[in-house]
Amino acid sequence: MAVWPVDGPWCREQALVDSIFNEVDEEVRREQLKKLWDRYGLFVIILAVLIVLGIGGWRGYEFWQNREAARAGSAFEAALALSEAGKTAEAEKAFAEIAKTGTPGYQPLARLRVAATAAQRDPAEGVKLYDEIAASPVGRMLQDLAAVRAGFLLVDTADFKELERRLAPLAEPGRPFRHSARELLALSAWKHGDVTAARRYVSLVNEDNDTPQAVRARIEVVAALLAAAGAPDSKATPSPDKKG
Asked: Is the N end or the C end of the chain the one with fewer CB atoms within 10 Å?
């Protein structure tokens, strides 16, 4: 078997050829990269700048958002302290400011406090403010809470049909404040002589296993009033599997 020499003119010539080809390949690659850079270099720079600005902007927004949330929380606590100290006018002003300029998490809470304070002074104004909250996109929980609070203000003055229009949807199974809505509707129906409706809502309260004990105790008063007025006692024994 022939053995090629590892050194000699042929090997040196081959090494020289390889070196030339490598240099040519490198030159071609550099030329291609230069053409690409000449064509797209500006876009690459712009993209890099945008990425840096985007990351920096997002970090800055997160910092601002956290700072504003902390400020809103402190302002809300200060307003609560004013309210607990009996400084009603100052508290109402502070809550009103948060309702206008606070973060989205604190604005609806401040609006509820403003409505509650206004209701102490003027129930009709309180109902108006609660209605505005119930009609605004603050989430189902706070919308229902505002509607129920308006119902509390109206139970002594509004017609039963009006109160039922407002609260019947909130009395449906699964709604977070259904127990309070049913209690108010039972009381309003009794006040306006609608015995059938009163019995229906008393039954709904008693048949719901999740009804709070305080609501059960109060609904017993309505059931007693119905019985005293000659209507059959509609209080039912809760079914073990009855929910909502």
From this structure: N
Alpha carbon of 104 to those of 109, 122, 139: distances in Å?
9, 27, 11
Residue 203: is it exposed, middle or buried by C-beta count within 10 angstroms (0-12/13-18/19+)? Answer: middle
Percentage of the chain lying above the pLDDT 90 cut? 48
* 8 Å CB contact between 222 and 187: yes
Q: What residues contact 133, with CB distance under 8 A and at least 6 apart?
A: 108, 111, 112, 115, 142, 143, 146
The pLDDT of residue 16: 47
In 3D space, the residue among 119, 114, 207, 129 whose CA is nearest the CA of residue 156 turns out to be: 119
Q: How many CB atoms lie within 10 A of CB 176?
A: 14
**Cβ–Cβ under 8 Å, residues 217 and 195:** no
The reported pTM is 0.67
